[in-house]
Amino acid sequence: MSAESLEIARSIYQTGKLAFENGQYREAVENLEKASALLARNSRLGGEVDIWLATAYEASGRTEDAIALCQQLKRHPFAETSKQAKRLLYILQAPKLKRPSEWMTEIPDLGKLPDNDDKIRVTVNPRKSSGQKKAAQPEFVDLSQVNTKDNRFILVALIAIGLTVLYLVWLNFY
Question: Is the domain covering 3-92 a CATH 1.25.40.10 domain?
């Protein structure tokens, strides 16, 4: 294999990994299949690409292809690739658990909502249910009713701190 084709395969492999990590599984499968075809199956890089390809197969819904590829990779000459293939095969062949519907949260399809901003309602106080709906008004506060007098707490606290410091200094000299 030439250095140029190896570099092309690495580039396609990186593109496939990036597509997989971005959730574009079909594109990831295409790129990883191209990279796998350019590399020797028994090479370390070829095994790494095939592990990613098996994962991309599973993510794109092609579980049978992923299982078949992992079956082949179990006999890979590199121990790390073989071990990863066995682990992935174990996961792929595990029985699928059925989740009760109470555990699931249905996410509504917001694409079906009309694009009319006039119909959006904002609930100001959901506990009060009145027949008439009023728009939220800003609440103004009469400043003559607010207690703005200093309660002398800060002054008392500063005097107490000062006396404590003076007492500690006095103790230090005697």
Answer: yes
* Per-residue pLDDT tens digits for 119-153: 445 455 555 555 555 666 777 777 677 776 777 78
Q: Name the packing angle between helices 25-38 and 3-21 (round to 10°).
A: 160
Where along the chain do its domains lie?
3-92
Predicted TM-score (pTM) of this structure:
0.57
Q: Is pLDDT of 70 > 70? A: yes
The full 3-state SS of 73-99, as one line of letters, equals HCCCCCHHHHHHHHHHHHHHCCCCCCC
% helix, strand, coil for the chain, step of 5? 60, 0, 40
Q: What is the mean pLDDT of the chain?
A: 83
Q: Specify the pLDDT at position 104.
A: 83
Instruction: For residue 29, count CB atoms less than 10 angstroms from its CB and return exposed for 0-12, middle for 13-18, buried for 19 or more.
Output: buried
- Taking alpha carbons only, the member of 42, 39, 34, 4 closest to residue 16 is 34
Q: How far apart are CA 48 and CA 76, in angstroms?
A: 11
d(CA 61, CA 82): 23
